[in-house]
């Protein structure tokens, strides 16, 4: 499994071209980039620009994955630029992105259903709890829209990989994949988001494993709150996630481990288990997983009391200027350690360190 980064949470990415970002991550020893949009490869979807990006990635031996935007029709009004790309036809825009990505050899495309409403608080920040349209209606509309994309996806041998985003459960994603077809829809497994839906990272990884084609990896702290728990992002290995368990669950798929870091926020999100509306809105909830998350919160807070990890107050403070890059480097180091240990155990022989990650170690020590 290669270790890459997500473009939206890479410090300075907005000031770089796609080729500039590829060169920068290569310097740091990463092995790929998960561009959140195909438009990051070429804003005009210019064939020559797309080929140049693919040539650069090939020369640097980097993997490229990209995204096509949200596929929940009720989210479309929040994405006017994509609708404009299709001349007012959002589906046409999706077709253009799928075709452009395939032209430069990118066949694994990120998507999700909703946006997190950062201007709102509590349950209202999640489109799962919108009051103008039921969540079941949003899921039905998403399946219907994905089925309209299926022919062009099949024609290009491409998958749309739906993220375990903050608003959707792993159970629901599995049902979507199975209804639309795993030949065109897969899953981007986000290790920290499943916690927000009250799920164990390992259990969720096992549920989605047959359909995982991409990842967003990051760790998380869990701390107690008045109405349940709060999730706060942490570098891999510095939170509560059982990384050997997660990596073992998805190992057969061999996805790129795309570290999604932080920029201006550690993305604290509520898990209000004690809210009746939240509880009734999660019919698939597993009691054992809920209990596990509370145990993990107890353990994290005990470690914080011992001074081993930052407590909730410290994590609520501002993100320092060097923290986003350090988040990525520390996460890569932890992933490399876990992968090495896993392979060593499976073959009972040491694993030589990949050249790209050896370069990462070298950069860290400069």
**Tell me about the biggest sheet?**
8 strands, parallel
Q: How would you describe the shape?
A: globular
Mean pLDDT: 93
Q: How much of the sequence is in beta strands? A: 5-15%
Kindly give the count of domains.
1
What is the ordering of alpha helices and beta strands?
EHEHEHHEHEHEHHEEEHEEHHHHH
Q: Tell me the structural class.
A: alpha/beta
| Spatial separation of the terminal alpha carbons | 26 Å
Q: How many alpha or pi helices?
A: 14
Keywords: Carbohydrate metabolism, Isomerase
Protein name: Sugar phosphate isomerase/epimerase family protein
Pfam family, one: AP_endonuc_2
InterPro entries: IolE/XylAMocC-like, Xyl_isomerase-like_sf, Xyl_isomerase-like_TIM-brl
